[in-house]
Write a structure and sequence with these properties.
200 residues, alpha/beta, globular, 20% strand, single chain, two-stranded antiparallel ribbon
Length: 200
């Protein structure tokens, strides 16, 4: 089990998807921490839109840990599908089956101790704040229906403070630190070699 942590838009997804593409879905399954945002069906859309999604309290850690335990025991799990436009779970799920390797990526995958202790390899993707902000701005406007103003406000009010308080300190738990995320080809090659050893 491999955990890939790092700041918002640091390149975690790029690394995880690269591992899946090069290793193959027959050997590696991937889970995104974002899938485990709490169900906020009882809240109004305005309440959901102003919640702090970068705080550890925004995640359903018991469900994620239950799913990781099930995968470790060879069982498949039904992972929630999150709707970024509605700021809530969509109600649908996707099946993730047990595999030789399970990769979990997300901003806080090394924050929860129970989850952290499940990983055989812990990776932190370390990318400069300005690069992460530019990537996040482009992504949220293009893919998540946000305005430039709302992205900036969220970044200043919750994203940056949470990074400094929770995400950056979790780097001390990492076994491997990868600067510049998916753009660091030599680091990805080394990581891929290790993953291939595990699947041999």
């Amino acid at each position: 089990m491999i955990g890939v942590a790092g700041g918002s838009s640091s390149g975690k997804t790029t690394i995880s998807e690269r591992l899946v593409a090069l290793t193959g879905e027959d050997h590696l399954s991937r889970i995104e921490l974002d899938s485990y945002y709490l169900d906020r069906t009882g809240e109004t859309r305005e309440e959901r839109s102003t919640a702090n999604y970068d705080h550890p309290d925004a995640f359903d850690w018991p469900l994620l840990n239950d799913h990781m335990a099930a995968l470790a025991n060879g069982a498949s799990v039904e992972v929630p599908i999150y709707d970024y436009v509605e700021h809530n779970r969509s109600g649908a799920t996707r099946t993730v089956r047990a595999n030789k390797i399970v990769v979990v990526d997300g901003i806080l995958v090394m924050w929860d101790q129970a989850l952290r202790e499940r990983f055989d390899l812990k990776i932190f993707v370390d990318t400069a704040p300005d690069i992460r902000f530019i990537r996040r701005l482009r992504r949220d406007v293009a893919e998540r229906g946000r305005t430039v103003e709302s992205v900036i406000e969220q970044y200043l009010n919750t994203v940056r403070p949470a990074h400094e308080r929770f995400i950056e300190p979790s780097k001390r738990y990492a076994d491997v630190i990868i600067p510049e995320g998916g753009l660091n080809r030599p680091a990805i090659d080394v990581l891929l070699a290790r993953v291939r050893e595990l699947t041999a």
